[in-house]
Amino acid sequence: MKKTNIRKIIENEKGIATMESALLLTIFVVFMTYCIGFFGVVHSGILNSISARAYTFETFRNRSNLTYFRDELGTQSLHYNKYGFRAHGIISEKSPVGATDGQWYVTERTIAQGKESPTVTNRRNPNQLDQALRRETEGANPVWIKTTYGICLNQTCGDG
């Protein structure tokens, strides 16, 4: 081959736009999966906040004495004076049905949609992990959403 033919082959730019568009399309798809994931996180947080607030106001019902759970005293007359506060929140849809272990399971939302992280299924109970330890050992995917509304009933609330 002559030098001019080799130079023509090297300087040929046909097909470059196809490779660039394939790369940009891949980047766009990855970006959109993360956008959908973050939308799901924000949307779940807003809906959990609305639900917890509505549940709080439903059980408070403008009463002056909030030490009992409901107005009617049925078989479950839960008295909150021994706790010192009342908290209302939303548990996860994946929490065990009829769980009486006292655990408050958090809602989990994955950031990257379309792929399941292998640590999600093998992870320990999120309620038992320190938040700083979790970020160091397990990362931030999935996001944990735990929304609560509450009120102190006496002066000892919040002493820890």
Describe the protein's architecture and organization:
This protein has a two-stranded antiparallel ribbon with strand order 1-4. A two-stranded antiparallel sheet has the order 2-3. It is rod-shaped, with a radius of gyration of 27 Å. It contains 4 helices and 4 strands. The longest helix is centred in the first third of the chain and has 45 residues, at about 15-60. Helix content is about 40%, strand content about 10%. About 5% of the residues are buried. By secondary structure, the chain is mainly alpha-helical.
Spans with pLDDT under 50 lasting ≥5 residues? Answer: 119-124
Multimeric state of these chains?
single chain
On the 0 to 100 scale, the average pLDDT is: 76
Q: Return the structural class.
A: mainly alpha
Based on CA atoms alone, the radius of gyration comes out at 27 Å
The number of helical segments is: 4
What kind of sheet is the major sheet?
Answer: 2 strands, antiparallel
User: Helical residue percent?
Assistant: 40-55%
Beta-strand proportion: 5-15%
Net shape: rod-shaped
**Spatial ordering of strands, largest sheet:** 1-4
Written as H for each helix and E for each strand, in order along the chain, the element string is HHEEHHEE
The count of DSSP E runs of length 2 or more, i.e. the number of strands, is: 4
Distance between the termini: 84 Å
Break the fold down into its secondary structure elements and pairings:
Blueprint: H1 3-11, H2 16-60, E1 85-89, E2 107-109, H3 118-122, H4 131-138, E3 143-145, E4 148-152
Antiparallel strand pairs: 1-4, 2-3
